């Protein structure tokens, strides 16, 4: 439901009384006036005056789609030039997409009555459309606007539904993401308004729009029309108005001469041509009733005399500006041309070809133009931006307040920031600023032309990614097995995973403790499939990866896994995982489950932007491989019944080794890595074989009382081993030395990302938050704050992970504490919501400190 603007009605709006004090509403008014006591005091009144509606509370009932497409040539604009370009590309055998924002092809040629190639424009358009429809390699998209060029040949389009086929289940809009190595921009030109006093009254329209209404829809903007122009294009509108039996009061032209042909045509229709003249003011309350026309002195902006012309519509044309927004977004440079008073391309673009009016190759964009801005009148009543109500006076104020850059003026006055993104205000702004600053328009420049070119609904961008599809739940290939065997499934990061496997009468805590004890005493099986897995291949793969890890990878050996950390440029820990050399030019790295996508994007960004010369290919393979982690003192015995071709003994397959193997005849890769502190075999198999092998391991483990275990048990097991959990025991400030890895980073000679930042003064302070162990006689709450002695700090640190030792039940925790490594065996108090408990700082790990069980 939207509130209608105007009270008590649009026809008689009492809010118009504010127009009497319009000098108070200058640029920057809101920022200067409503700072005290606060914006919210005034907001509701201003929103009502502005006629803002109320956003619907319910979900959007419409359907939207997103679609990817590839082509060899994307033609933007279905006018005459666009049709020619699409046909030529189609004849050359290229795959072509032709996007036209209108509901029919041909542009002006389809309705204006012009002739093309010796035939009526409408007939020519029909012939070209039929020709394109017969070509299998050409796809035509009507009602489709190109809204942005995003680099690397990526262009976004928005297509609205055809009303004739709209209905339930059909999309209202479709958002296209098109990848095209070549773009033909035939988007035409945009007519500009004239600027004069009270140029925003109802009844003042652009001549080109009024002409199209007349020819396409038989709609007249008025019965007594005055036309004001500074170029030739509006004369055709005058002719068609007269032929339609409507009145044309005059054509007011700011130029001192027009062609003999145009003059003769107007004489034949008894249409007066007022040369060297322009409108300077208008009259009318609810609608236009008259226009004051001034004759300009030859060679100057002085006014010789004025007279009033009675009319009910004023059609204006201030010239045609090539639609180069998309060209600029693609990196094309623009320059101001004094003769035509518009911006045009400065040079050619390697991937974007301009055609037709966009390239200035049209009768509408050619020729010298007359003045666009009235030389007289109250500048506070001369609107430059008709949608944001920015006036010439606002621009004058901006310059007085030393906002000289066109970008600064735009932000101070909001000129060009309305829904049309400056399409009809930018040129007038440049003209005004050039006069105010006494500089050539080319030196004033233009604002940045950003996407979207036209307004885009959020629904179109979102497509079907709403509701449950906004962040789709990811499930492993073993999800059905987990669900059917009592798993308590919860979201961990992007994935739905088992937290614990509940038995009858068990609580979640009891189940997780049972599972953890099984891993410590016999064996357990964990679904670690979401673990990030990325292949990096190429002759320079080792050099490339060595830039990312604080470990020295130059000494990595085939079939051995190396654990390491990645840092951000700030030196902060980003992710951890293993690196395995599968071959001299082929590596497989693992990441945390939550960072799998981020690490892949991180690698791609550096390869594309910083080291494009390195010959590497990056391939995420997380979903292709399922990961089954078999852990516990009896795990070797369980696996020996299933694996072939691999000696599982510790001497032949030690910790951190990797082996290619076959499990039940299936291709597999087995790691000796552990996040539990127990003997562990991490079995990687194709995702499609995961359930078969999982069930086989479960069956083989029955004599040993093997149990599946979930995330909760894993967290208990890793906690008492003191193993770091990225994002839980680290935050956006943690550097390697905070977790005891400062020496490893310091020893590496080769450069790696974040290396220099580790030497910053703040990163070597002795009182930094350092990871320590913590014990207590009572349960330790996660997040509790630590105080040591009589510390003057509000907090000396906090608990990051907590639980109970699996076998002894001793409360243990990991915490970050200021200067923690120097405070071993000190007592601390823990503060949690007003509850105070006591603990002691201890080294980690809490269990099997020598790692004998892990290396058994």
Please tell me about this protein's structure.
There is one protein chain. A seven-stranded mixed beta sheet has the order 36-37-38-39-35-29-40. The longest helix has 14 residues, at 508-521. It contains 21 helices and 46 strands.
Helical content class = 10-25%
Indicate the multimeric state.
single chain
Integer average pLDDT: 94
Question: What's the arrangement of strands in the largest beta sheet?
Answer: 36-37-38-39-35-29-40
Which stretches are low in confidence, meaning pLDDT under 50 for 5 or more residues running? none
In angstroms, what separates the terminal alpha carbons? 71 Å
Largest sheet: 7 strands, mixed
Structural class: alpha+beta
Key features of this structure:
alpha+beta, 7-stranded mixed β-sheet, elongated
Give the secondary structure arrangement, pairings included:
Elements: H1 29-33, H2 40-50, E1 64-70, E2 73-76, H3 80-91, E3 96-99, E4 115-116, E5 119-120, H4 121-133, E6 138-141, E7 144-149, E8 154-160, E9 173-179, E10 182-185, E11 189-191, E12 204-206, H5 207-217, E13 224-229, H6 234-243, E14 247-253, H7 260-268, E15 273-274, E16 277-283, E17 290-296, E18 303-310, E19 313-317, E20 320-322, H8 325-329, E21 334-337, E22 342-345, E23 352-354, E24 383-385, E25 390-391, H9 392-400, H10 406-413, H11 426-437, H12 441-444, H13 458-462, E26 474-475, H14 479-484, E27 487-492, E28 495-501, H15 508-521, E29 524-527, E30 532-537, H16 541-546, E31 561-567, E32 573-583, E33 586-591, H17 596-609, E34 617-620, E35 625-631, H18 635-640, E36 643-644, E37 658-663, E38 666-671, E39 680-686, H19 690-701, E40 707-708, H20 711-720, H21 742-747, E41 769-775, E42 785-787, E43 797-804, E44 811-818, E45 827-832, E46 835-842
Parallel strand pairs: 1-9, 2-3, 2-10, 3-6, 10-23, 12-19, 13-14, 13-19, 14-15, 26-28, 29-40
Antiparallel strand pairs: 4-5, 7-8, 8-9, 11-20, 16-17, 17-18, 21-22, 24-25, 27-28, 29-35, 30-33, 30-34, 31-32, 32-33, 35-39, 36-37, 37-38, 38-39, 41-44, 41-46, 42-43, 42-45, 43-44, 45-46
